Amino acid sequence: MNWRGWFDRLVVLLILLALWQAGSMALGTYWLSGPWLTVSRFFASLWDGELIFHASYTIQEATVGCVIGGVPAVLLPFALRKHPVVVAILDPFMVGGYGAPKLAFAPLFILWFGIGIESKIALVAAVVFFIVYFSTLAGIRALDTRLVQMAQMVGANERQVGRYIVFPGAVPSIFAGFRIAVPYAIGAAVIAELISSNRGLGYLVQTGAMNFDTTQVFVAILAATLIVHGFIAIVDIGERFLLRWRPRGAALVVDQGL
Amino acid sequence: MAAAPILEIKALGKRFPARSGREPPPWIIQDMTFSVGEGELLTIVGPSGAGKSTLLNIIAQIEVASAGEIAFGDERFASSEQKSLQPGLNRRIGYVTQDDNLLPWRTTIENVLFPHEVQGTLDDKARTQANELISAVGLSGFENYYPHELSGGMRKRAALIRTLVYDPPIILMDEPFAAVDAQTRTQLQEDLLRLWSLKRKTILFVTHDITEAIALGDRALVLSRRPSRVAAEHPIPIPRPRNVKDIFTMPGFAAIYEHIRADVQ
User: Fold this and answer.
1) Which of A86, A212, A225, B55 is most buried by a 10 A CB count?
2) pLDDT for position A21
3) φ, ψ dihedrals at B78, nearest 5°
């Protein structure tokens, strides 16, 4: 983006902050905290360690949940690559799992896994699994069969075709899936904490709202947003490393394919 | 053709499976018979839609034949008995397709060494040979470039030497130079003839360009329109080494060109 673009972006930010501040002054901080209050409380709570205490819990849930949900979601389509019938049988159930409002399952997960970290991880994993499963599947289906034939002609066996052709070909779609899944993962962790917990950003939201401390609610939301940015930055770094063979600008095309 | 046939095509036929509720599909290839001698460079010319690519796919064992038989040395593959395909026939048939089919996530050198990598024969000798081929076709300095960073002609060269590097006895080429500009094509044809004169592989080269068929081939087969069969066969007595750029000035060129053009209908 050029200099002018950054300037325009800054103007939009200032307008939004001004509107927020004006709303806060009109309604009173009792109803709507202001940007200045939020940012100063954010840093105060960062220094005294309280924010880190809660955010680290949420990050832990999201990370473990992404791994538990994401790894099988990547492996399953590969395992089923040679069994299109099984994929077809599973399809309506997978679509159901993808379409069902998983946040509504949060009370059930708490019932099954307790009010500790396990229920939050389970919810995050359920959310991540279906998103990554479908994007990985799409990547495998979009595979260029001519490349597979070329590999077979030069002597590649089935395992080598999977490793050298199918997997690298699906990597862009896997990354696209994780990029979409990350905000949902953080969101699921926060919602699960909201319902029942004694730690985490969702807990901060919950207690803040209970005590009519809207500033605390905004601090927690700000922290969750920054965590999403951090996670996406990690996905970007991994993608840039693994996809350095791609022409620049191709990322947009693949992401839209989902 | 002095050498013993290394590949024989006998009464080959191909039609695609019928779809329910339709008339039986027409034959694409019917009763096609020819043989290829060891070390021969056979060019195959035919109008578009004459089943040229299908023919190569069947020989490469990517597609099944519907009738007839293919003999490769002493081995016979009859279409009626064939249960499963072995693409490339255990690496004895190399295939340079119309598209370069380079792996976009591999650099030039990694693409060229790919056959050795999957065959477990990647050693210093293979690397040395790959580097020789890379410089023979003028790709030196581009070893570590990804395919999208190469020009169309360079990608063709990389695809060509990826097949030459593991030394299959028979190489099939399906209009490999069709998609490049005229100057690059002449250059690629000269590269191919130079590499072929060094190793004398058996090559089946499919093209729709009559000049190309004459410039490269020891013999040119002309295919008829669908259903495709061998319509004519022309030995090309122009002596080697040939100058591809000026091939049309060679004595005899005009007569062969006229004959082939009359047959391609």
Assistant:
1) B55
2) 92
3) -90, 135
Per-residue b or e along B194-210, where b marks 16 or more CB atoms closer than 10 Å to that residue's CB: ebbeeeebbbbbbbbbb
Residue predicted with more confidence, A48 or B25: A48
Alpha carbon distance A25, A165 (integer Å) = 60
Complex ipTM value: 0.86
How many other CB atoms sit within 10 Å of the CB of residue A83?
11
The predicted-structure confidence for B166-189, as pLDDT tens digits, reads as follows: 889 999 999 988 878 888 889 889
**Yes or no, beta carbons of B97 and A150 under 8 Å apart:** yes
Q: In 3-state terms, what secondary structure has residue A81?
A: coil
Strands (E), A158-226: none
- Please give the order of strands across the beta sheet that includes B170-174: B93-96, B170-174, B202-207, B41-45, B219-223, B230-235
Among chain B, residues having any CB pair with chain A shorter than 8 Å are 60, 62, 87-88, 90-91, 93-95, 97, 99, 101, 103-107, 114-115, 117-119, 146, 148, 162-163, 166
Is residue B157 within 8 A of residue B139, CB to CB? The reply is: yes
- CA-based nearest residue to A55, from A221, A188, A208: A221
The number of CA neighbours under 13 Å toward the Cβ of B253 is: 18
At B207, phi and psi to the nearest 5? -155, 160
**pLDDT per residue over A219-247, tens digit each?**
999 999 999 999 999 999 988 888 888 87
Q: Which H or E run includes B203?
A: strand B202-207
